[in-house]
Fold this sequence. Notes:
transmembrane
Amino acid sequence: MRRALSTVIGILLLALMLFPVYWMVNASLQPAGNTLRAGWFPLHPDFGGYAVALREQTGHLVTSLVVSLGSVVLSLALAAPAAHALALFSLRGTDLVLLGILVTQTVPGIVMANALYDAYTELGLLNSWLGLILADSTAGVPFAIIVLHAFMRTIPREIVEAARVDGAGKVRVFRSVVLPMSGNALITAAVFTFLFTWSDFLFALTLTTTDTVQPVTLGIYQYLGAHTNQWNAVMATTVLASVPAALLLVLSQRYVIAGSSGFTRCAEPGSDATVARKRKATDPKD
């Protein structure tokens, strides 16, 4: 009885949390008009809202995709070497550096946006993909450093030392040993950086003054004010904007879970891979 009651409560809570998503999909399949009069089920689905959304919001979706992917690449390119240095090298002030990285996460976004607006005005980066990528990376880089540092510090030093004995330099160790072993952490950082950027609204609103370069979040905001009678198109746009994020989470779920718990099992000092590396470092015959 207790298990059955827990199952029922879990189903009710899940239905409550997913109801807005269901209503969004339901409203997107209704004819144009007032969504409040829509039925509970789209018995006669109308895909006209999706046609309007694809015709008018494709550019915004492409902008969001380009900016999100660019922010992921830039964040990982900066965060991975930094996390590697903080985790595996004996550096003074490492704790202070990590504290500073954590402090940057507490700075309100509106403060960052206003400061970047003044700088972008001087540099000519307003209304550009590069400007949005750099702005969104200010949130992705600190988060990626924290995630990668927590993961890389669990890498046994014996593995790194064995690679150095084999003749690999620091760059080769980082590229051929540390990065492959940190694959799950890299995917975890990439997924959350993509989600941060994909859902960004503040930087997009502050750093774009024309409609030439606008992410889908700002497109929905402006689209809502201009087409309040076409709720099916508005909801269709939100559905299309939700698909990439939902698909990414589904595909990367097992990597994110492994990034937080799986590495400790495969990189223990007594694991097969570590023992083999140790033997190779100490026995020239192997």
